[in-house]
Amino acid sequence: MQIITNFLSFFLLGIVSVVTQLALQREVINSxxxxxFYIGIVLASxxxxxxxxxxLCHPREGGDRARSPALDPPATTASAGRxxxxxxxxxxxxxxxxxxxxxxxxxxxxxxxxxxxxxxxVPNLLYGTLVAFLSPAPICLLLGAxxxxxxxxxxxxxxxxxxxxxxxxxxxxxVTGGIAFGFLLVRFNELLVANIVILLCMAFLLLLKVGPIxxxxxxxxxxxxxxxxxxxxxxxxxxxxxxxxxxxxxxxxPCPPAFWRGATTVILAMLLGSVYLLHSPILGKLDRDTSxxxxxxxxxxxxxxxxxxxxxVTKLNEQFNFYENGALMGTTEHVQFTEELVHLSLLQxxxxxxxxxxxxxxxGAIEEIRKHPVQDIYYVELDPExxxxxxxxxxxxxxxxxxxxxxxxxxxxxxxxxxxxxxDVIIVNLPPPSTQLVNRFYTEDFFAIAKGHLNSGxxxxxxxxxxxxxxNRNLEELDTSIYRSLAKVFKRVIYLPEDSLIFLxxxxxxxxxxxxxxxxRLKARGIRTDFLPPDYxxxxxxxxxxxxxxEIFERNANAPINRQFRPAAYFLxxxxxxxxxxxxxEAVYKPVGSSRVPVAVLFAxxxxxxxxxxxxxxxxxxxxxxxxxxxxxxxxxxxxIFAYQAIVGYLYYRLAILIAALMLxxxxxxxxxxxxxxxxxxxxxxxxxxxxxxxxxxxxxASLPFISRWNSAVHAEVILAIFAIAAGFFGxxxxxxxxxxxxxxxKDPSAVYSADLAGSCLGALLPLVFIPVxxxxxxxxxxxxxxxxxxLFFIRSSxx
Length: 800
What we know:
- By secondary structure, the protein is α/β, with parallel strands linked by helices.
- The chain contains 31 helices and 11 strands.
- The protein starts with a helix and ends with a helix.
């Protein structure tokens, strides 16, 4: 039964790791504006702190200290027994604290939201980054310590194969946890997820040999029953039921009975409490109360998780505010801008009959469109839950219009790629490109798709933030980038700057700055507005700010085109974000981030590290190899996530599925590396593995343009999931090989594991700069070059 205990320990470690990571990422996104930048920060932090935890708990030199009392002969001295007790106590304490710490971190993050910024406000980038980086630290330190202490307590760590088995079982737990989160836990609130983690950990602790079993006591009967039930369920066919009973009632570990009597009572109480909370309204009320902490000064009316995000409705006086993933989507009092956006675009068309509205339909845009002689309104919204919640607080009104409303619950990008409908006017009413998801709707690629769905004389409308008096230099570049992207696709582009910069584009020469026909159509259609008198349209079409904006576009003529796989607007929006709080830091980061010099310096440091390790410290070579593989794996994972976001769109609940696919590839790789690869040519295996990562990166790079052209989102999802599995396989196959090589120098189960995680930390940070600045293709080329370089160094140093 020791095999079952070992399996469950690392299997549970994998489940707890991926579930807490995904839930914490979601909580960070909900608290800090929904920006994917924080996904990379949390991933990098997760890997770094887990690596530190594993090293802090690494075994010391000296034979029996790493041995398990369940596997070794009984200790012959009192001191040996004390060593065993310390290891066991640490392991039990780690498992006990995991869920409790996660529960506390969720509550703490919600409290910190008001420290970082106000509800719906762009948070202070530096403070938000620090919170995202430090918040995973407590739980990750314990997860890393769980790995090392688990190997010390449950395995003979002097055997490299046992460490590889631990890694394999943990990866299987990753896959299981990712699938469970993607299909089940995604709709649960984070406190309920934390409670489930606590329940799993307490149940596992009761399965350990935590004390002498005496069926005559009620408490022991409960423990006995729980242990016996789970043990029988996981009993291999080769083990008899008698052996199971001997395990359940068998000899205890060397920890003092008094310690275990107290521990058993606490663990059992926690388990029963977790089961009770699953069916109690207490957690729901606590989740509501702590969620309200993020919206200080507002009354929280509703908070719900959907497959696509966290939707929150608050009330401030008589105004309803709608948030999705922490970002303000709209309010019921934002009427003036809605009137501007709708009427300035529809009045440019002589007779609009069919209108497509992308986003923002809940906040008055549909009602304003119905004031025009429109026959069909197509409203596209990704999240049905957002529509349901919106209609609950903002009932739809037709105002006597005969227009037919078609509500389409689908990703707008893929709707336009697949529909045969053509429109007179397309209005994109979305937030600025501060996330990669929204950035897709500001790219040259999307503009070309939209152009193909316009009727003759059709008009495409979108908008960006602006300033009536003066523009921030990054905002100037952002506006110019979008203008140049529009101008590459459409024949005619006019711009109307004020508090928002409205772009009107058309493939035909139908747009005008002349206010006379616009005002004439306003009166002919009998349109009444609350904030826009006829003179306002004359002002917007003749204001001096149009000439000032033209000068800005000419001054920034070298601003980059915003493309699907090189999101320049996303980078410029984040620079604007940084400049709001730290202008001096932005002044340093912008030239560094926009230059290829840091890449050359990074490569030089990498080459220097390879040269030193190859000549001075050969024991470092396996560590550098697995670190490079970990960095490559994490970079490839983030590229897959970004590609999925850019091509398919709805990442929120699919993130768990993509990570599960990656982990599945890792599990297959570890099995392949442990049992199939020949053990007599480990260095050659390492060289081949790095070559495979290099070639995989090149193939992935060459495939992305073709995948992005597919109309079917399902086909794109499948092929990207396959790439995720392949990335996991090629990135993880190096772990068992490097582990065996390193064990020839030093028998330390935490060294290779920590190097893998440290490399993954670096790999999570690099794409945060590479993808927005240089694009996806450059990032994949860098991964390919790094692995080719290390393969060549291995050949040189090993004489292969």
